[in-house]
Amino acid sequence: MTTNRRVILSSRSKGVPQADHFTVEDAAIPTLSTGQFLIKMSYWSIDPAMRGWANDAPNYLPPVEIGAAMRSFAVGEVVDSKHPDYAVGEVVTGMFGWNSYAVSDGSNVDRKVAETDLSPSLALGVLGLNGVTAYYGLLDVCDPKPGETVVVSTAAGSVGSAVGQIAKIKGARTVGITSSEEKMALCRDEFGYDEVISYRQDDLAGALKAAAPDGFDCYFDNTCGEISDAVFTNLALGARICICGTASLTDWDPIPVGPRVHRQLLVARARLQGFLVLDYRDRYGPAIAALANWIRDGRLTYQEHVLDGAEAAPGAIDLLYRGGNRGKLIVVV
Ligand SMILES: NC(=O)c1ccc[n+]([C@@H]2O[C@H](COP(=O)([O-])OP(=O)(O)OC[C@H]3O[C@@H](n4cnc5c(N)ncnc54)[C@H](OP(=O)(O)O)[C@@H]3O)[C@@H](O)[C@H]2O)c1
Fold first, then answer.
1. Do residues 130 and 277 touch, judged by C-beta distance below 8 A?
2. Is 37 helix (H, G, I), strand (E, B) or coil?
3. Which ligand 1 atom minimizes the distance to the CA of 225?
4. Distance (Å, rounded) from C-alpha 323 to C-alpha 224?
5. Ligand 1 pocket: which of 53, 129, 154 to mutate (most atoms <8 Å of CB)?
6. Residue extent(s) of CATH 3.40.50.720 domains in the chain
7. Is 156's C-beta closer than 6 angstroms to any atom of ligand 1?
8. How many CA atoms lie within 13 A of 22 on its CB side?
9. Between the N and C ends of the chain, which has fewer C-beta atoms within 10 Å?
10. Does ligand 1 lie within 6 Å of residue 36's CB atom?
């Protein structure tokens, strides 16, 4: 009998969840009722946001319950259907959790994947929330103009690499911030950053100043912490800052303290804005169409880091927070 191989959250983590906070188990696949369909999953997504979903600190979604399959985005194929809008053979992506088979009534589906010429796994990365995040976070919040300088943290990652490339497509000059030599080379050679800086150095603020003597017009902030503290010392007049992620913070309780940036924002007349991709749910379509066309045209490239099987999932969030991923981290189910 086919069973649902799933990965449940078995104990509550504080900070980044580790492999032993999860358990891999097999469960029966429920019988379909009218209005439901069954999805056989191809890939699970590993996202930094999952750290917050596993914790019980206040967040924009309630915590995953202990004993429930870990919440995650996933992509798979409809293999049985009693729903008029979902046919066997269609590929769907949505919040299906770490399940190898999931029953859905359509409410947790983000979209049907129509780009049949491209890998379905892209629906979790550059043609998923990462790509859409890069697209709207950059174009709506930062709004870069040709000739302006855009700086991006986690520049080699799934979101960051797309931000850097979209900024170039829009005519901006790009500066990427990442950790290792290997990722710096990736940023330069694959993602076309004009300048790349490692944050693992004594004078990050000085290096940023040298890369952009007139200051940064746009900052796409994926990390918060000391990287952002350094960028805030080098803002151009009228800078726009998109607060997209806080990857450098391993815990939000207590709220970390750092330099107060009010004076720098005031002097630069800068705009600092939080961004959440879920607010753009009604506008995913145009962004995905634009991103897919840029991939087909060879103007947008991506990297995927594929882990093998359910047993690899429990340690994957920690891998991401240790910077061990090389591109969009996914599990092939
Ligand atoms: N607001 C939204 O709607 C939204 C949606 C999607 C993603 N995001 C955010 O976008 C960011 C990137 O997500 P992603 O999925 O593309 O992940 P990613 O960049 O592919 O992977 C995460 C990266 O974070 C970096 N990192 C980890 N710990 C760090 C630390 N202590 N200091 C600095 N950097 C650290 C590592 O890169 P390095 O090797 O370069 O350090 C790691 O590879 C995350 O902050 C995520 O929360 C936000």
1. no
2. strand
3. 32
4. 15
5. 154
6. 129-278
7. yes
8. 28
9. N
10. no
Q: 247 CB less than 6 Å from ligand 1?
A: yes
Assign 241 to helix, strand or coil. Answer: strand
Closest CA to 155 of 206, 203, 194: 194
Distance set, CA 233 to CA 51, 103, 265, 307 (Å): 29, 50, 9, 39
Query: What residue type is assigned to position 232 of the chain?
Result: F
Tell whether domain 4-124+304-332 is in CATH 3.30.450.30.
no
Q: Which residue has the tokens 């290096």?
A: 207
d(CA 314, CA 54): 12
d(CA 284, CA 242): 18
* The CATH fold of domain 129-278: Rossmann fold (3.40.50)
Q: Per residue of the chain (333 residues), what is the pLDDT tens digit?
A: 689 999 999 999 888 999 999 999 999 998 999 999 999 999 999 999 999 999 887 777 889 999 999 999 999 999 999 999 999 999 999 999 999 999 999 999 999 999 999 999 999 999 999 999 999 999 999 999 999 999 999 999 999 999 999 999 999 999 999 999 999 999 999 999 999 999 999 999 999 999 999 999 999 999 999 999 999 999 999 999 999 999 898 777 788 889 999 999 999 999 999 999 989 999 999 999 999 999 999 999 999 999 999 999 999 999 999 989 999 999 999
**CA-CA distance, 206 to 188, in Å (whole number)?**
20
Name the 3-class secondary structure at 150: strand
